[in-house]
């Protein structure tokens, strides 16, 4: 096998349906590598999350963190469980520690309508929905991560925006828009903020406008977050790349997932300069855990994102070929109505969709 095509993938299945969709993703990746050739993925599983905390007293051990440092990429299911909490009552979400440790500053949430699925919006242009939300994820309103001062009568969370961290996420968004433009998209980045009210957000917009000058081939504009929420529902097909603050991105990405059918359809990547983690955008979904109902599509599309990222870093063309083959197989399953997940009124469960995607890899 050619050099540069072996990758160590750290698997963090986590909790609830995270475990179920990760197993499904693993089956699909193994079948995919068998079909494409030239890629060797070696998987190592690590226990982390709420169950791990319950069983060992540690949600993410220092040893696991060191092992993740050596991996080429991280593939995560979902973490957290309502009944298992830290003694202070807060949720167990070590993925936030992973984000911080590896400085995974760009939360990349592609939102694309897949042909053949019943549209969520009545307008026929909903079939054209294809945008990416980029969420800054190292500061903003999550900066204090629950450690803001609380007294008997007052609680505060600082919203922190720094030039350096804003610049790096803006540059990421402009580069992403450049890649997409090469593939026929408009080449536009919209900064989503609240510059009319908050000083921090006016600063965010100012830095965005300064940075935009370095990317003259990309159109740059800005919009308030409230107007963006409205326009995401009225005309989501009009967006290309959006870049926004941490909390706004958290909220808008769930809204955006709803536009294409729900959390089971929305992949994501948490990307830094040296490391990256890929996971479906959904949580552990206790309401459907253990019933075989979890839609693994978001996990599969996250695997395609991971393959593209690995291919980019190692200049390994087979990774991009595999990513396209996987995306096409997912699309074919829905376009040819081989499966229909429960969110769309169907009854195809995790195993049905996994089998259909594996079959479609070869057709
Ligand atoms: P978190 O706070 O950890 O992000 P959450 O509270 O936002 O989690 P999710 O676990 O993402 O909740 O689930 C939200 C809803 O979407 C639930 O009703 C769940 O059943 C549904 N859901 C989430 N993921 C999937 C999936 N893969 N397939 C089908 N339904 C899903």
Task: Describe what this molecule looks like in 3D.
With 363 residues, the protein is an alpha/beta fold. Helices cover 42% and strands 17% of the residues. It has helices at residues 17-36, 50-56, 62-70, 94-101, 163-182, 199-212, 225-234, 246-259, 297-314, 317-335, 350-361, and strands at 6-14, 40-45, 73-78, 106-112, 130-136, 188-193, 219-224, 241-244, 267-271, 276-280. Helix 6 links the parallel strand 6 and strand 7 (219-224). The two termini are 25 Å apart. The mean pLDDT is 95.
Strand content: 15-25%
What is the CATH class of the largest domain?
Answer: Alpha Beta
| Inertia-based shape | globular
Count of helical segments? Answer: 11
Query: What is the number of domains?
Result: 2
Could you report the average pLDDT, rounded to the nearest whole number? 95
Structural class: alpha/beta
What is the name of the CATH architecture of the largest domain? Answer: 3-Layer(aba) Sandwich
CATH fold call of the largest domain: Isopropylmalate Dehydrogenase
Q: What is the topology, as strand order, of the major beta sheet? A: 2-1-3-10-9-4-5-8-6-7
Radius of gyration: 20 Å
First-to-last CA distance: 25 Å
According to CATH, the homologous superfamily of the largest domain is Isopropylmalate Dehydrogenase
Low-confidence stretches: none
**How many β-strand runs?**
10
Ligands in the structure? Answer: adenosine-5'-triphosphate
The level of helicity is 40-55%
Biggest sheet details: 10 strands, mixed
Name the helix and strand elements from N-terminus to C-terminus, one letter apiece: EHEHHEHEEHEHEHEHEEHHH
């Amino acid at each position: 096998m050619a050099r540069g095509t072996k990758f160590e993938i750290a698997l963090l299945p986590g909790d609830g349906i995270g475990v179920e969709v990760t197993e499904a993703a693993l089956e699909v990746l193994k079948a995919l590598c068998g079909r494409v050739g030239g890629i060797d993925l070696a998987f190592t599983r690590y226990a982390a999350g709420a169950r791990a905390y319950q069983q060992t007293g540690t949600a993410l051990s220092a040893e696991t963190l060191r092992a993740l440092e050596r991996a080429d990429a991280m593939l995560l299911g979902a973490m957290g469980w309502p009944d298992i909490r830290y003694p202070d009552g807060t949720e167990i979400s070590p993925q936030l520690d992973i984000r911080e440790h590896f400085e995974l500053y760009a939360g990349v949430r592609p939102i694309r309508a897949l042909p053949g699925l019943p549209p969520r919006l009545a307008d026929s242009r909903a079939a054209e929905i294809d945008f990416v939300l980029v969420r800054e994820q190292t500061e903003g309103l999550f900066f204090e991560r629950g450690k803001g001062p609380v007294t008997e009568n007052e609680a505060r969370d600082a919203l922190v925006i720094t030039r350096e961290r804003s610049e790096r996420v803006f540059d990421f968004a402009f580069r992403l828009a450049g890649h997409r433009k090469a593939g026929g998209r408009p080449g536009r980045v919209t900064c989503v903020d609240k510059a009319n009210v908050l000083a921090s957000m006016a600063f965010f917009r100012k830095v965005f406008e300064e940075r935009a000058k370095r990317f003259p081939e990309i159109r740059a504009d800005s919009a308030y977050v409230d107007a963006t929420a409205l326009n995401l529902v009225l005309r989501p097909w009009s967006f290309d790349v959006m870049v926004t603050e941490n909390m706004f991105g958290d909220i808008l990405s769930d809204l955006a997932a709803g536009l294409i059918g729900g959390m089971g359809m929305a992949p994501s990547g948490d990307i830094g300069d040296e490391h990256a983690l890929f996971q479906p955008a959904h949580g552990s979904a206790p309401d459907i855990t253990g019933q075989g109902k979890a839609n693994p599509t978001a996990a599969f599309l996250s695997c395609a994102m991971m393959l593209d990222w690995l291919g980019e870093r190692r200049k390994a063309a087979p990774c991009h070929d595999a990513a396209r083959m996987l995306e096409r197989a997912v699309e074919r399953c829905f376009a040819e109505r081989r499966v229909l997940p429960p969110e769309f009124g169907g009854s195809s469960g995790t195993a049905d969709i996994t089998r259909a995607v594996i079959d479609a890899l070869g057709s």
